[in-house]
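WARN no homologs supplied; continuing
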Amino acid sequence: MRFVLLAPVLAIFGFSLLWPLASIVLRSLNEKGRAALGDQLYWGHYLAIVRDDLLWQVVQHSLMLAAVSTTITVLLAFPAAYIVSRLSRQLSSLLLVAILMPFWVSIIVRLFAFTTILGRQGLINSALSLVDLGPFVLLYNTFATVTGMVAYLLPYLVLILLSAMRSIDTSLLTAARTMGASERRVFLDIYFPQIRPALASGMVLVFVLSLGFFLTPAILGGPHNLTIPIFIQQQVQTFQWGKAAAMGVVLLAVSTLGYIAALKIGGRGILTPAQHGTRGASSEEPLRLTLVMALCWLVLGVVLILLILPLLVVIPTAFTETTQIRFPPVGFSWKWFAEVVTSPLWIESLLKSIRVGLATAVVSTACGLALARVGMRLASPFWRTVIQVGAITPLIVPVILLGIGVFDIQGRIGLLGTDIGLVLAHAVLCLPLTFLVLANALSFVDGSMEQAAWTMGAGRSRAFWSVIVPSLVPALVGSFVISFVTSWDEAVIAMFQTELDKTLPVTIYSFLKSGITPAVSAVAALVTLPVLLGTVVLGIKAMRAPRRS
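OK structure emitted
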């Protein structure tokens, strides 16, 4: 029975993860970059990474971007998370909703918004022109790339730090103050040591994520911002598989070591929100306005602007009368929305994204439930750990590596450009997320109810569907939504996998690379508006939530 449940999961992992990765490794060890072992292993592609000046410059530039982005992200995330952790429940929840809002908007849309903000006729240069400054070159360079990377990474690190800060036992801080310790000593000797593991592991995770960025440097960076993922894509497009595969394997090795280090430092708790400890300062311990607190509030404001402003700016540009995107927009017109809803190009890409997203959500939710069920039922701690580690493995693999690997395999068997091929590729990305959600939900289910159903004569399958599944409905809905949004937002794998029949993110990406029109703004506005409205609703609910002592 367990094998039957695991069979679809193993098939998806084997087809969309293990086979592509094995093919890439074989290509990296073949002199001609073929997916086969030659007479002997060829290490020349790996040696070229160190010896070839261009390859070494690509590695150095990628490391520099990752280090700078990680440093800036830490400097912004720590004060912001500290303020949010010290606020009342209502304000803390409201700010957390605002910080997490970008998660629900496509990364392509957010990057497009940054082109509107940083462009020569964008928001910043338009504002500076009012005081006779500029225009400055803020786009298609390292500054724009780092800005986009930091905006993407901030919510991740804020969540990690916020979870750790909410877990701190504030009685230790109070005891230190009553013993006469200054606020500086309390922070350095008691508060920060409890945060340090989460901060260190979060920095490692952010650094590893930075190394795998593809879309951000491709859209916001200039020709000199050649990173490892972009180099891999360029080599695959020119059929130089050997160098691309070797660079991809090195990137995978660094990512794997980084994730292991992060889990070793911070423990598994960095992947889940804190379930204990205090939540924000109470009325007995209000935030006192000092110079340090003022700076922290200022940083929190910068974080909110960096995360929310791109989502707000992109909407007005959709109503311009001109064919060029500028801020503020010129005139007012609905013609770009009319073009989007009547254009076969946009409609077909939208329908493809919906089809693939729904199918991916069904497949990944069903497989995630099966994997979580088997994992929770196993008595052996070893095999439970094997399933848990295997389930989250796709999170470790850089998406560019999955993209070229799936492109390689599906190109051989004729699945490129098909909905089935893209669903199988997206499902392996979503499975870790659905597994984590459903395994966590199953851990809270009372197993005695299922055992009672067995004693009453119900079969195991009937007891599971009649007793267990109804209690998992919220988790199942959450898994479905997360899977759909992940598939809807994904562009790297889809860019390699689709040809003429593109998904919506890939269509937007093609416009960003070839020539932007206000129609892209209209699409971005249609995608962003539901998220903004949902955020407003959640914010109102957070403010109306009853206070807890």
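The chain has 24 helices and no strands.
OK
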